[in-house]
């Protein structure tokens, strides 16, 4: 169990690293494109690179966001709920979130197979759409794993009002 | 069961899930998916889930979200955002209420870098509260001004609120950013006047700060130059058409990184932390947007917007009356719902009404974003108040809520002015 937990934590960290590197890559692409344009040589396919890397940036952070309770909640009633109910809600939210990410992974996987069959790609650089859809699926599954871990193992944090008042 | 009834039941279920503290995105995904399944079949629901998720995640316009968040995070860790406060502090700190006024200016400057109200309140809270405490400012004024000043982040461009509104209503991000400039300056000015008025009425609220020498003033101004350059380049670049919003965000982020590295205020570790934190925040915002693209078709399929539109038209309040009613609904909802969730939930219902009344969607965007801003300091949720509380642990929560009331009133005045004078929002975008 411990080894599995460690492995999952490693995957979550890796996912966040990939997303962060993706973001820095986007910054670099935009800067090179803008500077290049001023010298009459914009970066060919910059839009394609930004578009496809965006998938990695967005889904790369999902796992860490789930593990760190980063998803936005309306916690107006939280201080009034008994601790046991709050714990149960955490569990339900985790399972629900994981189910959503698995559903996303499954439907996008089906869509990726179709993209592969139709040879869909980006406009200029002809980057195969399916590659990024498969990446989205993998990162979604890691996000599902993170939410399950968060719900089952990690202790809950107190509400800011409980923490500070 | 009629589609309208299914839509209404979905809306109630959504509210219940939200109040049960199920994450906003998860609740919206669930209700949207089940709703479309009931109204249009499972295949339509799964098809939409796959297509919308990938389409949103690869939307190149939305890259401004992580880029502006990165810019704000790096500006925050390098202390760059503090410099404007220090420059304002050196100039007006010695007048009565001057430190609070400098805080407002600092918040405005940070807002122009980050687009996040929470980040503004947290950063300025850490910097300004200790200073105001040192000079015996009333905690009610000092905490109130930080909580309220922090909200400027959502109105002064670049603003995440405008980006979300633009995506949900298919408006131009650049035009919305420009539309927020004058209202942002107007609100900042009204905040300053509020501080000065409060201190004129009750001088003990904000005693005079330390006098600074000319060389100290000069040094403080020199320190603020990088932040001013970044603001001018990004906002000015969008206005003049030199940059698209995406390019402005990318160049702005690169610029703060370079300035941080050159001035040795940004080490590799804090840079990585800032970038990683930007990715996490992006994930949470983007997941809500994806969920919105699932719940919006459900709401449209249920014919709920048409029904609400018919109801509002039946009230026969006229264009301004209906607009004011909608804004009043936003103000009430803002007391209970998180701003982004409120935007995503209400726009599919109100937008058709707004368009049918011939109200400019850019103008409406500014008004809505301002009401979201008011929600950030409205009890009982008022997230910015909780943020300030986490920094000012000795000040009771009630005291902070009392402190924000004058600023909330200033926001209401701003809202009134923006409703009465649409040109305040529309003049700059019209010049683009």
Labels describing this entry:
heterodimer, A: 165 residues, mainly alpha, 6 helices, 0% strand, elongated, disordered C terminus, B: 432 residues, 80% helix, globular
Your description of this structure?
The complex is a heterodimer of chains A (165) and B (432). By secondary structure, chain A is an all-alpha fold. Chain A has 6 helices and no strands. Residues 161-165 of chain A have low confidence and may be disordered. Chain B contains 20 helices and no strands. Chain B starts with a helix and ends with a helix. Chain B is globular, with a radius of gyration of 22 Å. Chain A: InterPro entries: DctQ, TRAP_DctQ. Chain A: It is a multi-pass membrane protein.
Shape call of chain A? elongated
Rg measurement of chain B, Å: 22 Å
Number of domains of chain A: 1
Beginning-to-end CA distance, first to last residue of chain A: 38 Å
Radius of gyration of chain A: 20 Å
User: Roughly what fraction of the amino acids of chain A lie in strands?
Assistant: under 5%
Task: For the record, give the distance between the C-alpha atoms at the N and C termini of chain B, rounded to a whole number.
Answer: 49 Å
Range of strand content of chain B: under 5%
Structural class of chain A: mainly alpha
């Amino acid at each position: 169990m411990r080894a599995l937990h460690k492995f999952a934590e490693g995957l979550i960290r890796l996912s966040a690293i990939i997303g962060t590197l993706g973001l820095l890559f986007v910054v670099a692409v935009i800067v090179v494109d803008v500077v290049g344009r001023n010298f009459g040589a914009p970066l060919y396919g910059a839009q394609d690179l930004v578009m496809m890397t965006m998938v990695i940036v967005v889904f790369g952070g999902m796992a860490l966001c789930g593990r760190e309770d980063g998803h936005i909640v309306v916690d107006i009633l939280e201080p009034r709920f008994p601790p046991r109910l709050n714990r149960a809600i955490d569990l339900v939210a985790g399972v629900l979130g994981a189910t959503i990410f698995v559903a996303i992974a499954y439907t996008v996987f089906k869509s990726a197979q179709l993209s592969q069959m139709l040879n869909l790609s980006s406009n200029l650089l002809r980057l195969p759409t399916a590659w990024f859809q498969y990446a989205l699926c993998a990162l979604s599954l890691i996000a599902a794993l993170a939410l399950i871990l968060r719900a089952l193992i990690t202790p809950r944090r107190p509400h800011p009002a409980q923490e500070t008042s | 069961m009629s589609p309208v009834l299914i839509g209404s039941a979905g809306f109630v279920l959504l509210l219940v899930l939200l109040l049960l503290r199920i994450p906003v995105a998860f609740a919206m995904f669930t209700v949207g998916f089940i709703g479309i399944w009931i109204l249009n079949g499972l295949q339509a629901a799964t098809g939409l889930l796959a297509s919308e998720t990938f389409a949103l995640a690869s939307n190149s316009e939305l890259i401004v979200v992580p880029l502006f968040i990165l810019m704000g995070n790096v500006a925050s860790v390098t202390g760059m955002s503090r410099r404007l406060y220090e420059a304002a502090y050196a100039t007006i700190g010695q007048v009565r209420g001057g430190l609070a006024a400098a805080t407002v200016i600092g918040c405005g400057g940070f807002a122009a870098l980050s687009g996040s109200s929470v980040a503004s309140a947290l950063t300025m809270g850490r910097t300004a509260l200790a200073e105001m405490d040192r000079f015996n400012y009333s905690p009610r004024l000092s905490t109130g001004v930080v909580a309220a000043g922090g909200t400027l982040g959502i109105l002064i461009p670049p603003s995440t609120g405008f980006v979300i509104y633009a995506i949900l209503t298919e408006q131009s991000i650049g035009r919305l950013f420009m539309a927020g400039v004058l209202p942002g300056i107007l609100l900042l000015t009204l905040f300053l006047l509020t501080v000065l008025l409060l201190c004129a009425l009750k001088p003990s609220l904000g005693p005079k700060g330390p006098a600074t020498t000319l060389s100290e003033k000069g040094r403080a101004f020199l320190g603020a130059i990088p932040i001013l350059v970044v603001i001018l380049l990004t906002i000015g670049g969008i206005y003049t058409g030199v940059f698209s919003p995406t390019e402005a965000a990318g160049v702005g982020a690169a610029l703060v990184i370079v300035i941080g590295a050159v001035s040795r205020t940004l080490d590799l570790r804090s840079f990585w932390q800032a970038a990683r934190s930007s990715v996490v925040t992006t994930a949470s915002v983007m997941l809500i947007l994806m969920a919105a693209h699932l719940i919006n078709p459900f709401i449209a399929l249920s014919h709920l917007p048409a029904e609400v539109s018919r109801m509002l038209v039946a009230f026969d309040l006229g264009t301004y009356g209906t607009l004011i009613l909608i804004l009043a609904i936003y103000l009430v909802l803002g007391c209970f719902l998180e701003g982004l969730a409120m935007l995503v939930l209400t726009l599919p219902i109100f937008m058709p009404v707004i368009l049918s009344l011939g109200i400019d969607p850019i103008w409406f965007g500014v008004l809505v974003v301002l009401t979201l801003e008011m929600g950030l300091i409205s009890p009982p949720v008022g997230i910015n108040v909780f943020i300030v509380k986490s920094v000012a642990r000795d000040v009771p929560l009630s005291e902070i809520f009392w402190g924000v009331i004058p600023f909330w009133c200033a926001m209401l005045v701003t809202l009134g002015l923006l409703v009465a004078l649409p040109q305040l929002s529309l003049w700059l975008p019209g010049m683009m």
